[in-house]
Amino acid sequence: MANGMNPPTEGQEKDVLLVLNKQQGKVSAVKGFDKEGNLQTVPPGGEFMQVDRNGDIISNLVANFYRKFQDTEGLALFRCKASEMEQNAKAIEDNHRHPTPEGDKRTEALHVPKPDNPESKQGYRFDPAKIDWESLKKVGITAETLKNTKDYDRVMRGYKSRNTYTVSGTIGGFYLRPTDVKLSFYQAKDGTIVPKLHGVQQDEKLLQRPYNGHEFSKQEQGNLQHIGNLGSVVQITDPKSGGQIPVFISRDRYTHELEYMRADKWKCPDAVCGVKVSPEQKAAFEAGKAVRMENLQFKDGTRRSAYLQVSAVERGLEFLPMSAVQALQQGQQPAQQVAGVKDGQGVEFNGHVQPGVQGKFPGKVQPKDVTPAAESRTQVAVNTEGKTNEATKQTKEPLKQGQDKPTAKQKEKQDKTLKADKPKKSRGMKM
After folding, report:
1. In which band, very low, low, confident or very high, does the pLDDT at 359 lie, cut at 50, 70 and 90?
2. In angstroms, rounded to a whole number, what is the distance separating the alpha carbons of residues 394 and 388?
């Protein structure tokens, strides 16, 4: 008998859902779901649920069925006319026990496939239904908050949020003072989805310490600090296996956290914004280098050039921000040698200046903008910065280009001055 949830209207055929328990080889009719979302079934002749063929209810039921029963290998869902339910139920059971081509064809026509899950289409790594949103709500983060900032899809795919969120509250008996964090999730060994809060790292010496066995060079430290990416592929010790693995390393520009991504598991895309990636560009990307790509087609309809680089934080290619591009360009361009720059005492010296550097006056290079050449380092240190060493501590005249100690003439003059200034030793009173 039909239940009272959706009474059939005259002249309108209703549908019913059938469930095959493959282990038992039995077919049941769907009666509904209980308060916990568990499937309720009855024998085909019992009180089953009927729904409109073209209504949204049956689509929602199918979606709920597959959402609730993640592992549906032991169950199969079928849909048929209510008037044909009993004969179809028997046909499904018979074909399950003794499959035939004709039986397979009939059951396949009745079978309800797993619907396209928008979350699966978007490549979600985590099931939103398995996340403890109530605990997150206690510290100030909700699913709606993430959707409003467009971070929802990002964190569900396994990435760290782009935006920061102010969290506070009591967790596990501990009070969390208001602080800005980024959010990500990871799956624990027991299968639970655990939120991870990424606070700002204040450790200034983080880049000076080994990272999973890799020691950063000065150049690498500068790249991570100013660009955000290492700029090369390096070997580190795998925290899980203990073996050596090739990785990209990046630094979160807000939290300053270091993250890595395996280089041997990353695949370079064939095209970016409608522009094909050349073999040379692909090789550069795979080596961790930044690459300038021309005539990229953006969503706003404009075409622009941009620098891209593999980011471990973004888990793939990223568009470098302007600050990173500026740091990159300065690092790529060799310093230009300049001559005739005057130090603090007005003495000329040789040095090197980075292209684009200007002092107080546009077009003029100032001493503070110049890295002194090797032969002029002592000169600038003494004349401009007022520093001394053992050789120059008594120097009163400015050092000239190439000097790192007084000349013989200057030394003689200094000795005479010191001798003249030295108080004469008293011989005592003559008696």
Report:
1. very low
2. 9
State both tokens at 10: 């005259």
More confident residue, 370 or 37: 370
Residue type, 20: L
Q: Crossing angle of helices 85-97/101-110, nearest 10°?
A: 130
Cα-Cα-Cα-Cα torsion 95, 97, 98, 100, nearest 10 degrees, comes to 30
- CA-CA distance, 278 to 275, in Å (whole number)? 9
User: Is residue 305 in a domain?
Assistant: yes
DSSP one-letter string for 100-152? -HHHHHHHHHHB-PPPPPHHHHTT-SS-GGGB-HHHHHHHT--HHHHHHTT-H
C-alpha distances in Å from residue 22, one per residue of 27, 45, 97, 125: 9, 20, 10, 29
Domain that holds residue 384: 336-414
Q: Tell me what the mean pLDDT of segment 341-355 comes to.
A: 68
In angstroms, rounded to a whole number, what is the distance separating the alpha carbons of residues 109 and 176? Answer: 57
Do 344 and 320 lie in one domain? The reply is: no
Judged by phi (left if over 0) then psi (alpha if -120 to 50, else beta), residue 25 lies in: left
Sheet with 303-311, edge to edge strand ranges: 291-297, 303-311, 316-319
Please indicate, yes or no, whether residues 137 and 189 belong to a single structural domain of this protein: yes
pTM: 0.48
**Number of CB atoms found within 10 A of residue 394's CB:** 14
Q: Are strands 26-33 and 271-272 parallel, antiparallel or unpaired?
A: unpaired
Name residue, tokens 């509250």. Answer: 169
Q: What is the pLDDT of residues 5-40, one digit of tens each?
A: 444 444 456 788 888 887 788 899 888 766 555 677
